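re the bet — no i am not wrong, look at it urself. input seq straight from the record:
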Amino acid sequence: MGRIVLVTGVSRHLGARVAEAVAADPGVDRVVGVDAAPLRRPLGAVEHVSADLHGGSIAQTVVDSGADTVLHLGLTPAGSAPGGGSATGNGNILGTMQLLAGCQRSESVARLVVRSSAAVYGESGHGPLLCTEEREARSMPRSAYAHNAAEVEEHTEALARRLPELSVAVLRFASFIGPSVDTPLTRYFGLRLVPTVRGYDPRMQFIHEDDGVEAVRRMALSDKAGVFNVAGSGSLPLSQCLRRVGRRRFAMPERGLRMLGGLARRGEFDYSPDQLRLLCSGRVVDFSKLERELGWSPSYTSSEAFEAYLSEHSGGPRRHNAAPPRRPHRTRPALGS
């Protein structure tokens, strides 16, 4: 008998695409897609269940589904939820706690994959920082989103300790980007006048949306456990990204973020100080552990992923250019081997 996979966050782009990709695998019998929000489009063979991630219904849904594999992709990027960062963070943490409770009660769940963020590594000051999964963050992350992602990981790790028979993988993603992605970061690149923090020109590392979907799919159907960074190779300075997008920018002192926060709360500006702090990190993640464990590498470098985004979103001549050719994947072992 094939697997039964439950995927949270299917009303959003990543969750929907992962659910479809997993449903197409011959080793999977059923995929149950869970989200309180309505689907943006039909998901083919994926069974949609409306369940509130913040209440007890998600825990019961996990139990009732009979799923042996749970993919928790409901981590919401900073600024994506109505009500701002506080509402987003509460939703991330409460939703995760309810889902983990369902995994603990279930007699069938044997595999859990949780979406996290490279933001948990915090800020590195003015110098670049290469982050591996084994290193401790230099300090607690300053942004609320990073705090929330770290707390999601803490709850997941606690469940793994309580249930050593449960195979758990946590994926720390770099910033998603690509032709179809709509995130706070892509909306930032689309602002007519782009704020930056004076004295910072951080390195931007991306993961192409196709590679992000493939990373989750492969991890879901493998038995690899632990924490894994997921990113495209290389990085670009933020200043270079903004030049290529063709946006005007203005630099503000870091203390000016307080004023920006007031404008954001009144709806006069659509980029919060919490989001802007994420652009002060200067972090670049090492994803060699992912490559070793899965025998697979992302097809797009960070630069190529950004070019794919520009091909659809730039107002200049790049708009109708084809995305850069995909590099062939490295040799891949059979899934589940």
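see?? The first strand starts at residue 3 and ends at 8. told u. also Confidence is low (pLDDT under 50) at residues 78-89, 316-326, 328-337. so pay up
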